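Reviewers asked in the last cycle whether our approach scales beyond single polypeptides. To address this, we selected a multi-component target totalling 561 residues and predicted its structure end to end. The input consisted of the following lines:
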Amino acid sequence: MVLETVLLTIKLASITTVILLIIGVPLSWWLAFTQSRWKSTVESIVAIPLVLPPTVLGFYLLILMGANGFLGQASIFFSGESLAFSFSGIVIASVLYSMPFVIQPLQSAFEKLNYKTIEAALLLGASKRRAFYSIVLPMSRRGFLTAIVLGFSHTVGEFGVVLMVGGNIPGETQVVSIAIYEMVESLEYGNAHVLSMGLLVFSFLVLLLVYGSQPRLKRR
Amino acid sequence: MFFAKIGFQREHLEIDVQLELEKGCVTALMGASGSGKSTLFRLLSGLEQPETGEIKSDGECWFDALREYHRPVQHRKVGMVFQDYALFEHMNVFDNVAYGVLPEIRHEVVPDWLSRINLSHKSSSYPNELSGGEKQRVALARALANAPDILLLDEPFSALDHTLRHELRLELQALIYDTQLPVLIATHDLEEAKNLANFVYVMDEGQIIQSGQSKSIFSSPESLQAAKVLGWRNFLPIEHQANGIAKGKWGSLKVPSLESYHAYLALSQGAISLTPLDSEAGEGLTVEVLHSVDKDDHQLLDCRLADGVRLTFNLAGPETVVVGSHLVVFVDPSCVIPVSL
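The resulting structure, written as structure tokens, was:
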């Protein structure tokens, strides 16, 4: 059961991180360079999970994903199943909840780019795709590393939103943090200790990676 | 030959420019900050699209508003050196220069360019390990290794000290002679334009307000704004003129070249002295000395005429002028050019 929960958590965090990168790169790029008057509105929406109690976000997502909600009805129409209390539901919730942890480091990295280097690449004949892979990606690699690490680890550690939207279904929506809560409730302190210590060590290593990457990159 | 006639409007700047660049010739684009030089570079290179006009390089069409044709920046072969060089900080010198070169000829072309700019020994260094002059050389080699059809230099020496500028200017001249490219250099540095350029365009508020051979343009400004860009510092507003005599609240001055209506008299360096050079030079102008700076063999004086017009000039000789004192200065009419507004 413990292994199944850990694997499910890793699966959820991996899928969430990939989706966040796919959405986050163009959105962060837009936020970094746009002069649109909607910029601050979009930035505020993205940052809402930083200040909102997870239960509030979870509550509204549950309503939206339920059988009477817009997302729930769309899901039932296309797949025959509701999003509430499903793995797909907690993926959507995790994407929304972890979004600022991916968008903000990427946006900050893009804002620090010297835009003229991208123009120099285009003037030297590079396609936009080549300019992105050969100039933008390596020059903002620390931002990408931070975004990936924070997006992944924040999803691993989330509790409130997942519990509200996904409940506690072993093998479907029961992630590590929820399993720890259930173990403590049923006085299984030994198992709770194993998972908690695992999360603690994981969180420490993640932060070590993020903070440790800076001097390493500077030395080059 | 490179030809461009383009129109473009963005917020407060309206570009309306026509220019021709000869192969092997350096053309300077002079103008104050905000005059539209950098925007014009972006339009010529294809980083931005003009709204009207056409651009042709050696007969090849790069842009034609009538045919709605815009060749993408990647296919224009423009060598551009940015003011801050815009080197790829994560790549070494070799990879920077090689970026635009085809992989199959990279190992011949890049070492050749590194040797031409005397940086073969820095091939594996990163930009943050280079001096300002070395960065400038790498940026130039990167632009030229791509075998461009035109070279655009945006204030290329502005971040360098005087000695290094002179050295790099000579190297640049040799490279331009070798490559026989049309070269356009944006600058507001007089010395740079005088030493490098064969031809000069003066730009102000998005328009070319004067153009001419560099041998003659600096001594013959046509308007107040062009004169300012071309290094002239002293101007007397004309309120009334008749029979070759210009008058203003500052006094009057006989100017033989004053034939039609002009708004200002532009005074070249050396036009002002404490003694009349010509008995017909007039009565002299009374000025109040506001500031004085002692130089090696002269004093730099900042003075004010009766109507508040400022004159700045060098005063040679042993006499020392005290701030706050009044002087009578004489203007040599042969050093005066009437200019329009």
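The two ends of chain A are 45 Å apart (CA to CA). We regard this as preliminary and will revisit it once experimental data from Aim 1 are available.
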